[in-house]
């Protein structure tokens, strides 16, 4: 949970900017996007496997150079 207390003489725009930064840093935004739609476990595993293969391929290419 993110808590934000207004500082003395802080404008609303500054507080909103600080709030967005805190939410982004906490990973809440990313988690919300991930949970927006249900993803079958098999689809999630497939996506994770493809991401790992892509990372491995890129690391092999970079190590060969």
TrEMBL record:
One Pfam family matching this protein: Ribosomal_S21
Compositionally biased spans, kind Basic and acidic residues: 35-46
Entry's Gene Ontology molecular function annotations: structural constituent of ribosome
Biased composition (Basic residues): 47-58
Keywords: Ribonucleoprotein, Ribosomal protein
One BP annotation, GO: translation
GO cellular component: ribonucleoprotein complex; ribosome
NCBIfam families reported for this sequence: S21p
The protein, known as: Small ribosomal subunit protein bS21
């Amino acid at each position: 949970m993110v808590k934000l207390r207004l500082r003395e003489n802080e404008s609303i725009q500054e507080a909103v900017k600080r709030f967005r930064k805190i939410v982004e840093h906490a990973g809440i935004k990313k988690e919300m996007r991930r949970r927006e739609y249900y993803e079958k476990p098999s689809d999630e595993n497939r996506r994770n496997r493809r991401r790992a293969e892509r990372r491995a391929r890129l690391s092999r290419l970079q190590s060969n150079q």
